[in-house]
Amino acid sequence: xxxxxxxxxxxxxxxxxxxxxxxxxxxxxxxxxxxxxxxxxxxxxxxxxxxxxxxxxxxxxxxxxxxxxxxxxxxxxxxxxxxxxxxxxxxxxxxxxxxxxxxxxxxxxxxxxxxxxxxxxxxxxxxxxxxxxxxxxxxxxxxxxxxxxxxxxxxxxxxxxxxxxxxxxxxxxxxxxxxxxxxxxxxxxxxxxxxxxxxxxxxxxxxxxxxxxxxxxxxxxxxxxxxxxxxxxxxxxxxxxxxxxxxxxxxxxxxxxxxxxxxxxxxxxxxxxxxxxxxxxxxxxxxxxxxxxxxxxxxx
Amino acid sequence: xxxxxxxxxxxxxxxxxxxxxxxxxxxxxxxxxxxxxxxxxxxxxxxxxxxxxxxxxxxxxxxxxxxxxxxxxxxxxxxxxxxxxxxxxxxxxxxxxxxxxxxxxxxxxxxxxxxxxxxxxxxxxxxxxxxxxxxxxxxxxxxxxxxxxxxxxxxxxxxxxxxxxxxxxxxxxxxxxxxxxxxxxxxxxxxxxxxxxxxxxxxxxxxxxxxxxxxxxxxxxxxxxxxxxxxxxxxxxxxxxxxxxxxxxxxxxxxxxxxxxxxxxxxxxxxxxxxxxxxxxxxxxxxxxxxxxxxxxxxxxxxxxxxxxxxxxxxxxxxxxxxxxxx
Amino acid sequence: xxxxxxxxxxxxxxxxxxxxxxxxxxxxxxxxxxxxxxxxxxxxxxxxxxxxxxxxxxxxxxxxxxxxxxxxxxxxxxxxxxxxxxxxxxxxxxxxxxxxxxxxxxxxxxxxxxxxxxxxxxxxxxxxxxxxxxxxxxxxxxxxxxxxxxxxxxxxxxxxxxxxxxxxxxxxxxxxxxxx
Lengths: 300, 327, 180
Description:
Chain B is of the alpha/beta class. Chain B contains ten helices and 15 strands.
């Protein structure tokens, strides 16, 4: 299996953002998806750094794709989406709006925020030009297996959410702005203070979700370290790692070692918790009772 | 043209109540996971659907069948059968969300009118026109993330009819793009047609203080004299940073009654009322109100005063995203 | 403060008091028979309960000194009236008027819940299924009671008349458009 790095979901300063891709040029990942997924207001802050980042990664031999926005409503968002096609890199469609701009016959990939739940949808996307699909994180292993089998005959690569806080919802409303008593139009970029999102806890102080502007993520970090063999057997060809502020390059190396059988799941788990001891892990969407469940020893 | 009132019916009795109360159109679903209100005790078996459509048609009303979950890999036949059976029952249209199911319906049931469900979260004219050109979609139910001027802008750029929610439950997340429920319970709107399902809800009432837990997570705590909300995740009470409260959305429901004239001006064809889980008495009352409102608008009479707050969740209403400050 | 769904009357304590001594066994038998009559005329109600058709429901009119245990039993329902604390899979509690009004389609169950006039405990899914199935059945308790015959028919009809009088909830099904 290969590793793909998904687009950074959070709002980082442009230098930090660019630094990630300099680092990833040396990381053992095959593919990098970059660009703004979550909020169109963030894009102007690092837009001019994107061409350099792409060049660095391509030079280092990485496959590169540019993500579309997850939810396209405003005029400027439609323009941003339409302009992706001029960038001369593969587009990762994360809202079907992008498809309206991709000419028939142009290959593209499909991100985890497009609803690919069944074979007919997969076949339709393949016919339209999809060569790679990262499945929605809530899919069960049983569904993944059926889709990966179908994908093989369609010549489509199947990827699943491998590590990182899971994108659970996207909204027209900005929760970071709401938390600070502001509207979205006057958000003053409240989300930039939380490089891994803001923890949302229940009334009983149980960690639960993560707030990231208009996006809501899981509180736990999805981690497929214990599921690699089953995913490989199911026909999955890549794991997607989602950028985080703490030692992301180290995390990429760790996953490469897990895939190569150099370290086992327990050692990987200890290493992940070594990066951030407060982290909770989950892999429950595959076949747990619920998404938040963890198959490892330190069950929630 | 008078604006079309599209009403929910979770049961045959609610369908009859809606039709008698003046619904131009009723929407409903089969009693299984093919629709997004797959709640215990709700929805229609095949015979009830045939009878319901016949009843509605005999009163001059239409019936739309919602098949708006995302078919499960390996089990698509269940959803395909629902489309066939909706057509056989005489449905005036099906409401679909999944690309694969739209493709299937366009290929094998070309004569059956296709509406795009709110679950498809089609939020701009480009993607709406794409659905129309690719799958022959004739109407789109707009996601509840748009303001009135944005709706007007969409209508200016598309021939596809638009239907908007005007009353009832309010999803704060883009629908069809939300897995909060399956993260906490394993069951999701997209896969199972349920959000924050009753099977995973526990209430505890101690001395009048009502606690609601979903999948073991405490979602609400309301004091004795406070109105109770649905135990829906996105309307739960949480803390982040140094703040505690309804971080995503207050326990309110949508009421855009007073925006009907603006929505008409914005080019909206149909007004949709949420609530297939509500009783026939609720349906009859809400439908009666909205029918009176659009009739008054058409005749140039003043709009009747609203009176629906007490039926609403948290007994408070909002105009939601239709007013831009909501965001 | 929650607004009341509408003004829901409480069974007057003065009239509820004598019910403390009312013999409950005959009432249980009468209500069981009654429930079976309903089962015969509304088979769809039990189909609609689906997987919940064999659950135990506690219906607790909070203004009366007893609770009702209802077992749909897949279409052969049993009713047991008791003064003792009783447990079931789901408990639905509220004033007699709220409960009857919901059965009759005069009140909306969710609205009663929002206003705290109705409380649900235990298996929430089962409670929802019962509510939805009953709402669809369009029951008319007076008409069903009138259909009863035998020695228990008269006392039951009397009890319904009393309930109707004391709660102000009509036990004949209202027309939908004039329910409120």
